[in-house]
Amino acid sequence: MAEQPNFVLIMTDSQATNIVGAYGHPDLWTPNIDALARRGIKFERAYSTCPLCTPARAALFSGIYSHTAGAWTNNLPLGSNIKTMGQRFRDQGYHTAYVGKWHLDGHDYFGTGICPDGWDPAYWYDGRCYLEELTEEEIHLWRQGLQSLEDLRAHNIQAEFTWAHRVSDRAIDFLQRREDRPFVLVVSYDEPHHPFTAPPDYVEMFQDYDYPIGPAAFDSLEGKPAHHREWAASMEVARRVRNGTIRHPMYFGCNSFVDSEIGRVIDAVHDLAPANTYIIFTSDHGDMLGAHQLMGKGPAMYEEITHIPLIIEPPGEKPGRSVSTLVTHVDLLPTMLELAGLDVPPILEGESLVPQLRGEEDADRAAIMEFHRYEIEHDSWGGFLPVRSIVAGGYKLVINLLHTDELYDLEHDPAEVHNLIEDPALAEVRNALHDRLLDWMYEKRDPFRGPVWERRPWRKSRRLQWRGQFRPRPADGYAPEVRYYDTGMPAQGVKVEFGSKK
Fold it and tell me: Are 460 and 483 contained in the same domain?
């Protein structure tokens, strides 16, 4: 076997393509990410599997959609038999380290401070670890005391105070001390997610900047799901949007600040890591930023929160090209395993991107997304609001189980202002997307599947896909842990891999 490659996976929180210079927004000043895109392979149509922190991270780090991985809403843990990226590479001899925000242990936003299996405890540094370095006064300052440029100046906030800077320090330390074996290093920033903490100079850059939202700033939400209107009313976004623009200097300042921290790590990789090292950059989701009268993220599938950056800088030649194939978070782990020459377990639900790294395109691929609720402890944006969405070709279909469904023509209406779900001219397109989404739900054994997803107000006559009681999952590498109800004989298991039970 050729020498195995190394991987540095850098991710941010709440940073969709609409605030990254390389994706067409140069005013927002992300020079280090932009330079990475010029050297690497930029995926133009990458999507989050869920526009929410924990489920998105569950898919990225397990290679399995969150409804199977167990962490289908914020602050639920991964299933006990779900292997992570760290475990899969550690078990094959890699040195694996994770520095920064995790949000997959079922605890609160900050984590537990305890390193999960699969990662080197010497480098573990989640939010709890950061809190333990701060005084009570500093904790209050970080969480509640820095609301404006004036606050940042008054408290003389420097980069060294921030979680982001300390994450970068530990990542660089790993590279300086790395062992003589292949490695996977994950560098996970909380920024530009709230709380917005950055040196004042970064925020000052955007103090008078009016971000152009585009046509989505004028969406009346007529014909849209009711929960979008309820969400909008709770946020009172109209007070902040003026002439189709919004000011948010703290958010945009943190966006540029985290780019500078990413630059520190990228420079260290180029200086310290072996030549056969891949750099991967992505984010978990975005922020609505006033589009469609919404802020934050939640039970919607708009581009502002689902369309994420994905850039891969391969070793050696720097191609500086773009890929238009549709991809999602679940595709990253099988890609990394294949690049490392390792087996890709059948339990993984994504598709390797190695063909795309070699220059191939796949116009037939789709991106599928899900949402269930915002958080297990509270009912933000309406509690349980199950959503499934598919993007294929130039269209996006969104099934809101409890509300109005959506269909968007992304080529002619990229702002997703016009809901075409009832348009008879697009019935064939809509129904084909619907069939494809339903087939996926059954193939992946989505636990929330059922006939209510099939018969929608615009398709009441659809023949139900009765799949039978106690139908076992097809043979796909799972352990035989389940027996048929009627015969008592072994059947394929659903949740457990060979050798993964503790």
Answer: no
